[in-house]
Amino acid sequence: MSSLSSLTLLAFITGTLLLVDANRVRRVKLINPTELNNSYFTEENCKPESDGTCLYTDACDCQPTLPGDFMRLKGYFFSPEHGECVQSKYGLEEGTCNRFETFLECYKKCERKLRRAGHIKKRKN
Q1: Letter string b/e over residues 1-40, b meaning 16 or more CB atoms within 10 A of that residue's CB
Q2: Domain with residues 27-116, CATH architecture
Q3: Which of 123, 87, 115 is nearest to 64 (CA)?
Q4: Disulfide: which of 19, 53, 64, 87 matches 77 by Cβ 3.0-4.6 Å?
Q5: Tens of pLDDT along the chain (125 residues)?
Q6: CA-CA distance, 94 to 97, in Å (whole number)?
Q7: According to the model, what pLDDT value does residue 125 have?
């Protein structure tokens, strides 16, 4: 097999495994961010870098930014209190590292990474 075919096959298998892993995750909780216990959000450096990148191991502990009066973007964030990615009931503002457009993005960058590192326990389904 050529190296390009091998890489394509590897990418396909990796993508499939990620989807299977995410599929095992139960339905996403819908959370009102104003009812969260703020003591779980311990990270202070929560603004993205000038190039838009974030340090996700720490940013997963950032408090999500609540929406203003007009802008309510659908968003997911990692809740250290619940140990999983959740959806904001009222949307989230942009401008914090702990805000993701999709559940899968949140899962990959926070929940799965922290679970593998042993920082959060396996969920009961």
Answers
A1: eeeeeeeeeeeeeeeeeeeeeeeebeeeeebebeebeeee
A2: Irregular (4.10)
A3: 87
A4: 64
A5: 588 888 888 888 877 766 666 555 556 777 776 677 776 777 676 777 777 677 666 778 888 877 665 556 678 888 888 888 998 887 787 777 888 888 998 888 888 888 887 777 655 54
A6: 8
A7: 46
What are the residues whose beta carbons fall under 8 Å from the beta carbon of 25, sequence distance 6 or more?
84, 103, 107, 123
pLDDT of residue 4: 81
CA atoms within 13 A on the CB side of 46: 18
- In single-letter form, the type of residue at position 48 comes to P
Side chain identity at 111, as an amino acid letter? E
Q: In sequence order, what are the residues at sequence separation of 6 or more whose Cβ sits closer than 8 angstroms to the Cβ of residue 112? A: 21
Residue 85: which of 48, 31, 42 has the closest Cα?
Answer: 31
